[in-house]
Amino acid sequence: MTIDRFKPIPLHYQITNELRRAIKEGHYRVGDLFPTDKQLMEKYGVSSITVRRAVAALVDEGLLERRPGKGTFVKRETVEETLGKLTGFFEEMKARGYEPSATIIFTGPVEDLAKEIQRVPGLRVFGDAPLYLIEKVQKMNGQPITYLRSYWPFEYGSRLAEEDLEGRGLYELVEEKLGLILERAEQTISAGRAGKKEAGYLQVKTGTPLLIMERVAYAGDRPVELSLNAYRADRYKYRVVLDRNRPRPGSGVIVE
Amino acid sequence: MTIDRFKPIPLHYQITNELRRAIKEGHYRVGDLFPTDKQLMEKYGVSSITVRRAVAALVDEGLLERRPGKGTFVKRETVEETLGKLTGFFEEMKARGYEPSATIIFTGPVEDLAKEIQRVPGLRVFGDAPLYLIEKVQKMNGQPITYLRSYWPFEYGSRLAEEDLEGRGLYELVEEKLGLILERAEQTISAGRAGKKEAGYLQVKTGTPLLIMERVAYAGDRPVELSLNAYRADRYKYRVVLDRNRPRPGSGVIVE
DNA sequence: AAGTGGTCTAGACCACTTA
DNA sequence: AAGTGGTCTAGACCACTTA
Asked: Are residues B34 and B157 in the same domain?
């Protein structure tokens, strides 16, 4: 459970993971003084540079903050930081202090896979495995924000459908009930207009411009969800920060 | 010019900047073996850990790549990396191997600032300084992709307007002619539909959905450009990668 | 066998903060 | 004066690559 000097995993890396776990489990409160470098050196029996490296990784992730002369502190993650990470709609709304909810429209297996792939070419990432569709409208303080079509491998999707999808976020349930950890996602942002169906769900006029996001979420290297989100563009925008030297994940894509 | 042990700037930081400059100036070719850690230790008269730290920063920026047992190499930046950074349309298209061009629609001072701010509230970042507008259509291989309205403080804008804005990118010209370095930008992505004017410039029907980006670019802490881009959503999408642990700059924004 | 980058130690000195 | 994190040294051992 703790640090093993004979594992072929670098000590600084083992310590980073150990400390991250402790923070996430709530062993330290936000704003608390974190153990000093010296205490960590003694606790793990390693040198100062190894501790520094382990702690630096968590500073980078936004979990800790160092103040020279004062100490290391557990940081309150800013809304910015929370949202730059891979999060679901429910987490995102809660982080902003809004009340998320959802209305289920449909849950069930995808009957005609070939036809569905024609409409949503991105579904190819799943190969020819059977799929399960969860379709819902997500709301903020009772106002519809986005119409979501979320495709999962059949087993995952059908198990999710048994849960409280109107009161809880998909991604929370995935972790809690399926034990999957979504590590990474790729997201494409585009624009479209509301058809009759979308217009009804989102309470806008037909033809209203919508912000369209297609997201593929991965657990390890395996794709586990493809979702299509249609956001009301009058209520939701997407923000990106760009840096001259540091490569960032956002970029335009030419549609061939 | 080189490293100064008596400056209050950390050695690793001085070395990082020195090496970055050398790479950018083309002292090493892509794929070339970069000096080994040992050579750098001797050259700068510092210890291994200081060299490692300096080199690690450039690995992080995507300029170098380390292969244990082999050496450090100058990396060809991938299209992904180039585009995650703050780049203009011309650089972006060139990085993808397309031929960018532009048609100027209008250049001139903003006459009625108060009125313009009412239409584009983002312009408030400039306070009440006089502004200059550059309006153009940007093309890829001759095809219109985006209609751009780019606002600059008067002096910068008027100087840019004297340059070859149809054959070169704004951001290149800014660096070359104005000596400004754009370090950071904040960008908001939304959806809209083509009015008569946009429809004409982009050769689409009125009402076609467009991807709308509003960007504020900064040199140091000073905002120097606010641009409004309307992209043809059938030809251009925006892509973002999200990570579970690492905060990334992309995030949704609720419109109040 | 010699060279590479990756990890790690045990310590030093520094500026800064707190008491 | 004692404690904090930030920087840096001089070296060791490791796995891996190349010859």
From this structure: no
Task: State whether A150 and A208 are in the same domain.
Answer: yes
Among A76, A91, A109, where does a domain finish? A76
* Shared domain check, A179 and A123: yes
pTM for this one? Answer: 0.81
- What value does the mean pLDDT of chain B take? 88
For residue range B161-206, what is the model confidence (pLDDT) as tens digits?
999 999 999 988 998 999 998 888 888 899 999 999 999 999 999 9
* Partner-chain residue, chosen from A84, A92, A209, that has the shortest CB–CB distance to B247: A84
Q: Decide if A255 is inside a domain.
A: no
**A49 contact to strand C (CB, 7 A limit):** yes
Closest Cβ–Cβ partner in B49, B182, B234 for A255? B234
Structure tokens belonging to residue B140: 């890829």
Selected for mutation to probe chain B from A17, A145, A189 (highest B CB count within 10 Å) is A189
- Taking one residue from A and the other from B, the number of pairs with CB-CB distance under 8 angstroms is 224
Question: For position A253, what pLDDT does the model report?
Answer: 47
Alpha-carbon distance A232 to A235, whole Å?
5
Whether B187 and A239 lie within 8 Å, measured CB to CB: yes
Contact yes or no for B255 and A247 at CB 8 A: no
A190 vs B242, which has greater pLDDT?
Answer: A190
In a domain, A256, yes or no: no
Statement: the CB of B10 is under 7 Å from strand D: yes
Over range B210-221, report the average pLDDT.
91
- Residue B177 CB partners (closer than 8 Å, separation 6+): B159, B160, B163
Interval A18-68: pLDDT, tens: 999 999 888 998 887 899 999 999 999 999 999 999 999 999 888 999 999
**Does at least one atom of strand C sit less than 7 Å from the CB of A10?**
yes
Question: Does the residue A157 lie in any domain?
Answer: yes
Give the nucleotide with minimal C1' distance to the Cα of B33. C4
Contact A191 B191 (CB under 8 A): yes
Nearest to B187 by CA among A165, A252, A160, A116: A252
- For residues A91 and A212, membership in a common domain is answered with yes
Which of B76, B101, B121 finishes a domain?
B76
* pLDDT tens-digit series, residues A167-199: 999 988 998 999 998 888 888 899 999 999 999
User: How many domains in chain B?
Assistant: 2
pLDDT of residue A245: 64
Tell me whether residue B26 is in a domain.
Answer: yes
Q: Domain range spanning residue A49?
A: 11-76
Cα–Cα dist B47/B228, whole Å? 49
Q: What is the pLDDT of residue B8?
A: 83
* Closest nucleotide relative to residue A66's CA, C1' based: D5
Strand, helix or coil for residue B196: helix
On whether both B136 and B204 belong to a single domain, the answer is yes
Same structural domain for residues A119 and A55? no
* Closest chain A residue by Cα to residue B57: A246
Q: Whose CA is closest to A209, among B192, B211, B194?
A: B192
Rounded Cα distance between A72 and A22, Å, is 15
For B41, list phi and psi in degrees, rounded to 5. Answer: -60, -45
Q: Assess whether A159 and A53 both reside in one domain.
A: no
Which pLDDT does position A127 carry in this prediction?
Answer: 93
Same domain, B113 and B201: yes
